[in-house]
């Protein structure tokens, strides 16, 4: 990848207090690519996403977003480089309506989507705009959480386990929306425990294990060797 790849990470380390969570993570995501971080619980996938947006207590190493070194920037400055994260807990405010949740993030880069444009991607939210966050289903909350970050104008999207806890039919809807985002040219780095789901939409994968990148392969390799690779990831 060139110096202006949407994301290039090298030698990334991260700590929670005295305990180290990442040990020299290196990865890159090219323009328009959809790349996943696979791996067991506690491997360091969420920490990797959080480190990219400056939301871990301490980190070290190089993180380049569109060629800009952000490894030592505070998170509000990182946001202005055009990256946004959809966190694992979805971060929906229970007392706000869906619409209020949707317009919460500030526009930080050109090309931020309007509410109407977000509803084109997530038509299921249209009838739910006035509902409070708590009344939304898990799938609706996930759509809202992803839709919301599109408002910022970020072109690099970090999605943390978007399918977690969702029924298969809802996983399909979320998958279709993420594939749509890819078609629209967004670059996506996604944490995913569901290897089957990952294999239906991603271009490439990294396996995170004990704070390190253990392995990387393209999606064709995953599909060709699915049982062995997915078996190892869940063993
Ligand atoms: P999961 O799917 O369970 O979130 P993960 O691969 O995303 O797994 P991380 O959440 O990044 O893993 O966790 C990596 C390591 O850092 C684990 O050992 C975890 O216990 C530790 N860790 C994560 N968050 C914190 C925190 N807030 N405080 C202390 N340790 C943490």
UniProtKB/TrEMBL annotation:
- Which species does this protein come from? Salinarimonas ramus
GO biological process terms, semicolon-separated: L-amino acid transport
Q: Which CDD domains match?
A: ABC_TM1139_LivF_branched
Q: Which InterPro entries match?
A: AAA+_ATPase, ABC_transporter-like_ATP-bd, ABC_transporter-like_CS, BCAA_Transport_ATP-bd_LivF, P-loop_NTPase
Please state every residue range assigned to the domain named ABC transporter: 7-235
UniProt keyword annotation of Ribonucleoprotein present: no
Please report the name of this protein according to its UniProt entry.
Answer: ABC transporter ATP-binding protein
Question: Does Nucleotide-binding appear among the keywords?
Answer: yes
Give the source's domain of life in one word.
Bacteria
Q: Which Pfam families match?
A: ABC_tran
């Amino acid at each position: 990848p060139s110096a202006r790849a949407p994301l290039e990470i090298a030698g990334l380390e991260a700590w929670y207090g005295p305990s180290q969570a990442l040990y020299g993570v290196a990865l890159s995501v090219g323009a328009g690519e959809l790349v996943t971080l696979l791996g067991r619980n506690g491997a360091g996938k969420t920490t990797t996403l959080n480190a990219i947006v400056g939301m871990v207590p301490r980190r070290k190493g190089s993180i380049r977003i569109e060629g800009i070194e952000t490894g030592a920037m505070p998170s509000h400055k990182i946001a202005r480089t055009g990256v946004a994260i959809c966190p694992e807990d979805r971060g929906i405010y229970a007392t706000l309506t869906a619409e209020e949740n949707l317009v919460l993030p500030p526009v930080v880069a050109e090309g931020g989507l309007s509410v109407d444009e977000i509803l084109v991607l997530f038509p299921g939210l249209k009838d739910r705009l006035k509902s409070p966050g708590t009344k939304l289903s898990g799938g609706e909350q996930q759509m809202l959480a992803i839709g919301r970050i599109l408002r910022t104008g970020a072109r690099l999207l970090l999605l943390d386990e978007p399918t977690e806890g969702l029924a298969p039919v809802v996983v399909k809807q979320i998958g279709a929306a993420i594939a749509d985002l890819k078609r629209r040219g967004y670059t996506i780095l996604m944490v995913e425990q569901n290897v089957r789901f990952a294999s239906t939409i991603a271009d490439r994968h990294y396996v995170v294990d004990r704070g390190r990148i253990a392995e990387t392969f393209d999606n064709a390799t995953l599909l060709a060797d699915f049982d062995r690779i997915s078996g190892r990831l869940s063993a």
